[in-house]
């Protein structure tokens, strides 16, 4: 283009207006025509529609790729037998002339457990008292051995009272956790997750998978820190996240959850485990990852099932269908 401009010699006529000489015009016109011919030739070779795959168009911040997604479960601690509890802060909430204290409790798994993100809950005195009364009603003999800080009418917002209660609550929760029946009671679990697990299941059953996944993500680390990743609730949370993220087209997150769930499937129902493996195979294929080992494991499970029942291997049911039945049964009880 510069060579073309250099050959445009501008001359001034008598009136001072710039003009092009006729010779220069002819030369310029010839070069412009030649340039147009070259462009047409290039365009002919590049004819067609330029398409970029959806994968190339996605950026690292695209939620469908889930770069950096981490499952809120370690997947490496089958049981918890020595969990302690620490009140790390206490906040006075005033409402006019009255008020209450919010105690933030850190759940400390066994010191040999892998270090992960801290898991905390915030509860007030009435929450602890409610737990105590429910456990006393169900386990009167066991609870007769466990002391609970008494309620006081005045001075409950003083720093001295808050400090004493903080220590008492730590000892109280640790003492309850040391008893197997109390530790695995519904009342104790509900104190930590409140209505989170129940509401997550309800949202899952109503197919509100986006909100369900948020609640499962919230309760999963609490259950994992309390009971270890072999607990059925932990496994079911992970399976539910696999279903949610698969349906929400968050394939990377779904596969990550599925891989952790397989590590937490020690006591899982055979049908549910088989469906989980099938879902993991499908997710691996979608993302172009090796699935040969999973396929061998799936075939071995189906073969064992066939041999034990002396029937033709049955088709694997969808993970969502089996998990729905599990949750429906739990809701009825």
From TrEMBL:
Residues 81-199 form the PX domain. GO terms for cellular component: early endosome membrane. SUPFAM superfamilies: PX domain (SSF64268), TPR-like (SSF48452). InterPro entries: PX_dom, PX_dom_sf, SNX20/SNX21, TPR-like_helical_dom_sf. The keyword Signal does not apply. GO terms for biological process: protein transport. It is found in: Early endosome membrane. Keywords: Endosome, Lipid-binding, Membrane, Protein transport, Transport. GO terms for molecular function: phosphatidylinositol phosphate binding. This is PX domain-containing protein. It comes from Elysia chlorotica (Eastern emerald elysia).
């Amino acid at each position: 283009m510069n060579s073309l401009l250099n050959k445009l010699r501008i001359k001034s006529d008598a009136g001072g207006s710039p003009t092009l000489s006729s010779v220069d015009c002819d030369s310029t016109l010839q070069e412009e025509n030649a340039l147009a011919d070259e462009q047409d030739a290039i365009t002919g070779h590049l004819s067609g529609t330029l398409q970029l795959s959806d994968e190339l168009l996605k950026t690292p911040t695209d939620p469908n790729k889930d770069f950096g997604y981490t499952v809120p479960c370690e997947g490496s601690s089958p049981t918890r037998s020595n969990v302690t509890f620490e009140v790390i802060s206490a906040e006075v909430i005033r409402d006019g002339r009255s008020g209450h204290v919010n105690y933030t409790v850190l759940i400390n798994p066994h010191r040999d457990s892998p270090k992960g993100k801290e898991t905390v809950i915030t509860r007030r005195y009435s929450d602890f008292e409610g737990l105590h009364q429910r456990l006393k009603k169900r386990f009167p003999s066991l609870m007769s051995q466990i002391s609970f800080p008494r309620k006081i009418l005045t001075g409950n917002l003083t720093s001295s009272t808050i400090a004493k209660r903080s220590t008492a609550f730590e000892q109280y929760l640790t003492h309850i956790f040391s008893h197997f029946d109390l530790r695995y009671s519904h009342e104790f679990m509900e104190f930590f997750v409140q209505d989170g697990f129940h509401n997550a299941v309800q949202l899952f059953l109503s197919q509100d998978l986006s909100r369900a996944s948020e609640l499962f993500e919230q309760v999963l680390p609490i259950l994992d820190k309390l009971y270890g990743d072999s607990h059925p609730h932990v496994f079911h949370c992970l399976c539910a996240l696999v279903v949610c993220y698969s349906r929400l087209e968050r394939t990377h997150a779904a596969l990550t959850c599925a891989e952790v769930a397989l590590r937490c499937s020690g006591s899982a129902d055979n049908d549910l485990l088989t469906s989980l493996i099938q879902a993991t195979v499908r997710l691996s294929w979608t993302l172009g990852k090796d699935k040969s080992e999973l396929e061998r494991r799936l075939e071995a499970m189906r073969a064992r099932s066939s041999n034990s029942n002396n029937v033709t291997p049955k088709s694997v049911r969808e993970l969502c269908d089996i998990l729905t039945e599990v949750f429906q049964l739990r809701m009825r009880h």
